Amino acid sequence: MSAPCCDFCNNTTARWALRCDDVGVLASGAHATAVAALTGAWNACGDCLLFVQRADSDGLADRVARSAHGPPEVVRMTTTAFRSDVFKALYKRVLPWLGSPQPLATVGANSPQVEGEP
């Protein structure tokens, strides 16, 4: 069984699901625009969850921008400052939509569920 990835830093140690309504988010920063689709829940690792619970979108963005777990092509083609700027704008819009964290239960490879759901 493989662990689900964190939807923030892409680490493979996600243990929490943050529920949200389905919504599209558009956030513009000084250097770029980011688009995200919130669909049902976002997974979070323990480290990213701490930033989410504190509503620290800037701290979360800096953590994610420095993450070694991101897509290699994105990391190669952009600077940490650029990624941080884009993520700060995005997370300022995303965090208010996220619900309380619920533990994830892994039911099979790549099919995590929130505990207590069928």
Question: Mind explaining what this structure looks like?
Answer:
- 33% of the residues lie in helices and 29% in strands.
- It has one domain.
- It is globular, with a radius of gyration of 14 Å.
- Helix 2 packs antiparallel against helix 4.
- A hairpin with a 5-residue loop joins strand 3 and strand 4.
- The chain has a 4-stranded antiparallel sheet with strand order 2-1-3-4.
- It starts with 15 loop residues before the first strand and ends with a strand.
- It contains 4 helices and 4 strands; from the N terminus they run E-E-H-H-H-H-E-E.
- It is α+β, with helices and mostly antiparallel strands and 118 residues long.
SSE layout and pairings?
Blueprint: E1 16-28, E2 33-44, H1 46-53, H2 57-66, H3 72-77, H4 80-94, E3 101-106, E4 112-114
Antiparallel strand pairs: 1-2, 1-3, 3-4
Helix pairs in contact: 2-4
The oligomerization state is: single chain
Measured distance between first and last alpha carbons: 18 Å
Main-sheet strand order equals: 2-1-3-4
Listing every helix as H and every strand as E from the N terminus to the C terminus, the arrangement reads EEHHHHEE
Rg to the nearest angstrom? Answer: 14 Å
Which sheet architecture does the biggest sheet show?
4 strands, antiparallel
Overall geometry? globular
Beta-strand content: 25-35%
Q: Which regions are unreliable across 5 or more consecutive residues at pLDDT < 50?
A: 107-111
Structural class: alpha+beta
- Number of structural units classed as domains: 1
Report the helical percentage. Answer: 25-40%
Overall mean pLDDT: 80
Total helical segments? 4
Number of E-type strands: 4
